[in-house]
Request: fold
Amino acid sequence: MKWSNAFIPTRKEVPREAQSPSHRFLLRAGMIKPLSSGIYTYLPLGWKVLMKIQNIIRREMDRIGAQELLMPALTPASIWEETGRWEEYGDEMFRLTDRRNSDMALAPTHEEVITAILRDEIKSYRDLPQVWYQIQVKYRDEKRPRGAVLRARTFIMKDSYSFDRDREGLEISFLKHAEAYTRIFSSCGLKTTVVEALSGLMGGSKSKEFMVASDSGEDRIVECLHCGYASNIEVADPLPSKVAFKGGDLKKVHTPVSGSVKEIAKFFNVKPSQLMKSILYIREKEPIWIVIRGDYDIDEEKLQGIFTDIRIASEEEVCELVGAQAGYVSPMGSKYLVYSDFSIRGIVGLISGANEDYYHFMGIAPERDIKIKDYLDIREYREGDLCPQCSTPLEWKNVIELGHIYKLGTKYSKAMGAFYLDEDGKEKPIVMGSYGIGVERIMASAIEQFHDEKGIIWPLQIAPYHIIIINLNPTNPEGVALSEDLYKLLNREYEILYDDRDLRSGYKFNDADLIGIPLQIIIGNRGLKRGIIEIKIRGTEERMEVPPEKIKEEIDRLWKSMQKIRLEKY
RNA sequence: CGGGGCGUAGCGCAGCCUGGUUAGCGCGCCUGGUUCGGGACCAGGAGGUCGGUGGUUCAAAUCCACUCGCCCCGACCA
Reply:
C-alpha cells in the first residue's frame, strides 16, 4: 500500500483525557475513531490488526475442531425470558422494541441463541461432542466504558460453545479451549497468566481467565511464583502475613496520644501488626466486637455478606456502651460477642485498648484473654499476603482480561430444553461450556506491553504491515526508482506500507515510529550518495546499512531472526 | 449510581472569574515561494449556530436555570 493512497490519519496530539498508552496510541496512530461513549470505528490500520488477530483465533479454533458460524446480534426477548436473564441482565442489556412492539435485545452474549439452535438440532449422543464459535460484535451498555477499547459498549468477541454428553466430555472441551487460548495469545505475542475466576452472570461452576499484565488493567490478580497458584483477587483466598511477638502478662499502660493505630504503634515503638484493632459494630441492634490485626483493614463488603444487618457503632455509641473513646477500647472484659479475623489467630503479645481513655493493654493473648465466638475471613487482602497453597508471599499484578472460559454445565440446556438421547435410551441434558475472547483487548494489550515514548512496537504476528519503506525524497528520481523497485520486490512476500508522501523527513520518521511497523527501510539522499539503504528495527532502534542489491537477502534474514526471537521469548 | 472535570474552526487549547466593536492562539487544510535525514520557514487564504433551550441585561462565549453529550476517579459488572 502506498501511504499517499492510504487513510491513516495520524495525529500529534490527542485529548488529555486519553491516559493509557493503548488509548493514546490507538487514537494517535489513526487506528480507531470514537463515535460515542464506548463506541468506536476501527479505521483501516486498526482493522488490519484486528483482522490478523481474528485470523489467528480462527486458525487455533479450527485446530481444536471448532466450527465457525454467525448468529444474529438482534434477538427476541423470549429466549432471554426462558433462562431468566431478561431480568438478570438489567440495564447492561441494550433493549428495543420492533414495529409490532415486541421486546428485543442486542445480544451481550449468545448462550441463549446457541442453545435455541442446539435443542432443535442435536438429539442424539451420536451428534456429540460439538464446538461452535463465532467472531461477532457484542453489545453491552456498560456503566462506565473506559480506556477506549478496553471496556467498550460495542466490541468484537470470539465466543465459542461446547456441547458434551457429560462432565468428563466437558472437561476435555474445556482443556482443549485452554490450550487453544494459550496458543492464540502467544501467537499474538502476548504472555498471559491463567487465573481462577468468578463466573458471575454466566453461571456454572469454576471458570478461568486469561490475563495479561498491564497497569491500565481493571482487574487485579495474585500469583505465587513458587507453586504457580494464580487467582483473580475476587476469588482469591490468600493467608494473612505471618507475625510473631513475645507473649507475656497483661499490662495496662498510660498512652497519652491519639488512639489511632499509627500513633499507638509509634508510642510503643512497634509495628502496626502488633496492635489489635477492636471495632464495635451494631448487628441487629446488638453491639458486637470485631477484632483484626492492626496492619489490616476490615472489608465492609465481606462483613455485610456474613452478618447482613450490620453497621459500625458511632463514637457516641462506643462511649456509651464501652465507657471509653473509640481509640481506647477492646473486648477485654466485655460482655458483647467477639468475632475475630483470622489474622489474629494464634498470636500473642498484642496491644489494644484498655477501655479507659488514654490507656492500653499490652501483652494480650486473644485466645487466653478474650472469649472469641468465631474466626472469620473479613480482612481486606493486601500485598504481603501469603499463598494459600504454600505460604509464599504472593505477587500482585494489574491485568487486562483477554479471555474467560466457563464450565456452564446444564444451566442453559435444562432451562431451554436441550436434551439428547444417550445409548441407554435415556434423555439427558447436554453439558455445555462457554468461552470468550475480547478481540480488541488483544490489540490494546499488545500496545500496553510493547510501546515506547514514540509509539507502538507491534509484535510481528499482528503488525498491520511487516515493513515500511520510507522514501525521504520523493522528488529525487533515483530514490523513487529504487523505492518503487524495492516495493515491488518485497511486496511479493511481505506486507509493505510504502511511504511515498512528499513530506519532511522528521514527519515521516515520527509517523513510522508511531504506527509501529516492525521493520523500516529508509531511502534517502544521504544513503544514496554512499550507495546504501538503511534498515531500522522498530523497538530496538537497531540500524544497519545495506547496499540495494543485498536488501532482500538482509530483510529475509532479519525477518527470520525476529520471528525466532519472538518464539524464544514466549 | 456517587464524586470531579470538560463542551469555543478538522484536532489541541486560551478567552468566561470581573458581560461591551470584526472571538483568539498552535497544529492541520488551500495557494505561491524558499527549504528538505527526526513533526521547517515566509507571504497570502478558507474555515466558528462559542453543545442546545430558555432567562437576566441596552448588550451574553462570558451571569442564571434547565437540558444534551463527552472524559476521568470510585462503586457495580464480567
